[in-house]
Amino acid sequence: MQSNPVRIKEQKQNIYSGIKELRERINSHFDKLEQEIVKELNAAKLDLNIKIEDLFKELREKSERIAVLQNNISYVKNYASDLQTLVGSKKIETKIQCEETYIQSLMTDERLKQLSLKYSHNEEKETLFQSITSFGLMSKESSPPSVEIKLEKNEQAQTLTASFIPKSVDNVCAKLVRKFQIPQVKSNENEITGCAMFPNGKIIFADGEKKKHATFNCFSFKGEKIWEFTDEIVLYGPRGVAVERNGIVYVATGNRNCIVAISPDVKKVADFLTSDDGIEKPFKLFCDSNRDLLLVVECDGDCALFEIK
């Protein structure tokens, strides 16, 4: 039951991570839609500007031609002979008819109409806002207890005893989160002798590398390397690895018959338990952070349970 609050905290974090991931997906999708509509908007604006500029260019050219015709008409009236006036008038009349035809074409092909941009909202968007009123529905659930309380009676007294109810193997499942490769060290060959996980999700591996020296690699939950620590004397012959709640790493060094403690910042290494504490050829470690207990298992099967203070 002591682990129930921890599990609830993990569930809360997982739910929040899922909500955050959904929000990021929604933002990414709408960002993409926004980029597409802005691209269409810019293209439409450019197209209208080109049409307007082309029309202005044609009108300027026609205006210049009409000005030339007006000058020609004035010249013919003032300086030309009757014959020149007759011939010139015919030519000018033909050109005037061409310009009149152009002006009429402007009216019929609607190029003089006012151009503008128009945007229509997607009606499904409003329906989406109305239909989705929350990210999801939160609920609280209960499951069968992990402990069983029994009332035992005897002739002298009655006592309450509690025992854990084992979880059925039929309900156990696992999901692969990710895979990653531990980088090889000097000899290009790893010899992983132990691993453990920090409370914050970081993972540490002990690499004996043919027992020449010990290398400890710490990785994030995503497989990113955080730090590396190498030692050839104090951590000679590493075996089991365990991590307690404050981030202190405990290493079983079988060749030195002791348990070594490494500080969370990897700046200090010290002998934690030695042969004076009854340690002899330690092989595996297990740390119960909830009860601050450290279990040491030796090669010959002898075990020792220590309380961490």
Automatic annotation (TrEMBL):
InterPro entries the record matches: 6-blade_b-propeller_TolB-like
Coiled coil residues, start to end: 19-72
Keywords: Coiled coil
Highest taxon of source: Eukaryota
Protein name per the record: TRIM2_3
Protein's organism: Mytilus coruscus
